[in-house]
Amino acid sequence: MRVILNPKHAEHVPPGEMEGGAVIPSYEAPGRFEVIRAALEAAGGFRFEEPPKPSEECVTAIHHAAYIAYLREASAEAKRARDPAAKQLWPTVFPFGPNPRATGTRALRGQFCFDTYTPILPGTFASALGGASAAARAADLIADGAERNVYVLTRPPGHHAEHDRCGGYCYFNNAAVAAERLAKCGPVAVLDLDVHHGNGTQHIFYSRADVLTVSVHGDPAGLYPFFSGFADETGTGAGLGANANFPLLPGTGVKEYRPALAAAVEAVRRFKPAFLVFAFGADAHESDPIGGFTLPTKFFAEMGTAVREIGLPTVIVQEGGYNLTTLGACVTEGLKAIDA
Ligand code: SP5
Ligand code: ZN
Fold first, then answer.
1. Whose CA is nearest to atom 2 of ligand 1?
2. Domains of the chain, first to last
3. Rounded CA separation 112/172 (Å)
4. Burial call 300-330: b when 16+ CB within 10 Å, e when fewer
5. What is the ipTM score, two decimals?
6. Is 21 left (phi over 0), alpha (psi -120 to 50) or beta?
């Protein structure tokens, strides 16, 4: 399988994440990329390549211009800063709703972000854009029919990022970048099996009939992102019926996950898409420090088989997965089963 790498991933190095008023070590770290790459190299059968030079053109189709400019300028501001504290930009105040009168630096940090897990650092813009360009390249290979399956190895992840807000470690929505490009060639389904609801992808395509978004995840009653991912969110306007959520209880294991996965796959099939984007998180694994599910490593092969059996040209995009000792094996199992 061809693997498109984010060549800039290591430029984004979170010093920590803010949880309940304290800064704790960041779960989302460069080592995630390295362990996945090492596992794929050890497994064999994967060809690694870099995308063409990243360009903002990759993200303008799905992200608002003011948001893209904010990420670019805030990253540059962090890069210029001498004071170490000013090299990390954290939001402190959030708007009650988007407010066009918010223009000051501190206002924008909240305006364009929805949590305290997602700081802007000197390399954030370059790194996030590298991932988006890798996703764009993978989508173009699939759209051209050059490949059946292409995997995008990237971090920071993307599926929580909305049109104009970062959050959940995500800045540009890589899966949405891929889906948007594929949608030019035919209907697209996004299947998101990260343990967290793919709120960003849902939000970006919520009123569109040409892109189905389907997510299986921890019930937002108890798991991040808390405010979306409920089963009654089914799309709006022309997109009514083109969104499906399968929330599952904390502690979910194979017995509970399997029927939800089957229902999610059935929703994808009913839509009759021409292309699939698989937002592939490994954080539903039993060892994940933040997921709360109990799936064993071998179940990731079953996920991959389910994706393969959908039978569509597929872009696979790396999302979460935070246990560095099991992440590589989960991803390898999933990808091998997709390509089997
Ligand atoms: C892409 C992705 O998987 N984003 C996940 C963002 C979730 N961030 C929430 C982190 C919460 C950490 N809480 C620590 C509790 C550990 N028991
Ligand atoms: Zn996740």
1. 320
2. 2-63+129-339 (3.40.800.20)
3. 12
4. bbbbbebbbebebbbbbbbbbbbbeebbbbb
5. 0.96
6. left
Band of residue 201 on the pLDDT scale cut at 50, 70, 90: very high
User: How high is the mean pLDDT of the chain?
Assistant: 97
The DSSP secondary-structure symbol of 102 reads -
Query: Which chain residues have CB less than 5 Å from ligand 2, an ion?
Result: 194, 196, 281, 283, 320
Nearest-atom index, ligand 1, CA of 170: 1
pLDDT of residue 159: 99
Count, residues in the chain: 340
pLDDT tens digits, 264-302: 999 999 999 999 999 999 999 999 999 999 999 999 999
Supply φ then ψ for residue 122, to 5 degrees: -55, -40
Find, among 245, 246, 256, 330, the residue nearest to 287 by Cα. Answer: 330
Q: In 10 A of CB 190, how many CB atoms?
A: 30
Backbone angles phi and psi of 180, in degrees to 5:
-60, -40
CA distance 340 to 218: 28
The DSSP line for 50-62 is: PPSSP-THHHHTT
Ligand 1 site, residue 224, Cβ cutoff 6 A: yes
Count the neighbouring beta carbons within 10 Å of the beta carbon of residue 286.
17
Q: Whose CA is nearest to atom 17 of ligand 1?
A: 290
User: Dihedral (C-alpha) 94, 100, 106, 111: value to the nearest 10 degrees?
Assistant: 40
**How far apart, in whole angstroms, are the C-alpha atoms of residue 159 and residue 248?**
18
Which residues, in sequence order, are CB contacts of 285 under 8 Å at separation 6+?
A: 291, 293, 295, 296, 297, 300, 321, 323, 326, 327, 330
Marked catalytic residue, from 9, 159, 160, 285: 160
| CA atoms of 116 and 8, how far apart (whole Å) | 23
Which protein residue has the closest C-alpha to ligand 1 atom 13?
A: 290
- Residue 91 is classified by DSSP as -
Q: Tell me, using a 6 A CB cutoff, whether residue 290 lines ligand 1.
A: yes
Q: Is the CB of 196 under 6 A from ligand 1?
A: yes
